[in-house]
Design goal:
6 strands, alpha+beta, globular, 2 domains, two-stranded antiparallel ribbon
């Protein structure tokens, strides 16, 4: 009888269900050298990011395509010919922090949300099962979707900060999500 070991990392508060498999799937999906195609529906990843001033390490949710751009910038890699190297660098950092010294590279992965927004979203989604979270992610008018996108009469409220915080919480709950092409909507990755 063989045992299967699933690697997880503790992100945020409590034990995360985010796995190495989820991370590697996301970075492969958005890398043409690995997937064989250009993706227009990037997936989110959780990374560990070292603060340049304090040396503190924090967890950050970002699109894997943004992580790729940060790596390309940091290591001065060509996006066309350096794709395989970008993937290898990203893959090697699942449980190791990224330390982007180049300010332009770092800007690609800086979170759009504040700790306050992340805590607010965690509180709003607390107690929901993964099944409920998946169902609400797919629905246009669910409480989860309305956290970051809703009709407010004469205008549409859309917030990247709240969307990215929702993606963070979904990843913590073992749900791989991406950003739908040309929209601000989250979708469940297959």
């Amino acid at each position: 009888m063989a045992a299967v070991l699933v690697s997880t990392v503790c992100y945020g508060s409590g034990q995360s269900l985010y796995t190495r498999d989820m991370y590697e799937h996301a970075i492969a999906h958005d890398n043409a050298a690995v997937s064989g195609q250009v993706s227009f529906t990037p997936l989110y990843v959780l990374i560990r990011l070292k603060d340049r001033r304090s040396s503190e390490i924090r967890s950050v949710c970002t699109l894997s395509s943004s992580l790729s751009r940060a790596i390309e910038t940091q290591y001065q890699l060509d996006s066309l010919h350096g794709s395989r190297r970008v993937y290898e660098i990203a893959k090697s950092h699942f449980d190791a922090p990224f330390d982007f010294s180049n300010p332009k590279a770092r800007k690609y992965v800086e979170p759009t949300y504040t700790p306050k927004i992340l805590n607010e979203v965690r509180h709003a989604l607390a107690g929901k099962s993964p099944t409920e979270l998946k169902r609400e992610t797919a629905a246009n008018d669910s409480a989860l979707t309305k956290t970051y996108r809703r009709d407010e009469g004469s205008r549409l409220f859309e917030s990247d900060s709240y969307k990215d915080a929702v993606a963070y919480v979904l990843l913590e709950n073992g749900i791989l999500v991406g950003e739908a092409h040309g929209t601000t909507r989250l979708y469940i990755a297959q």
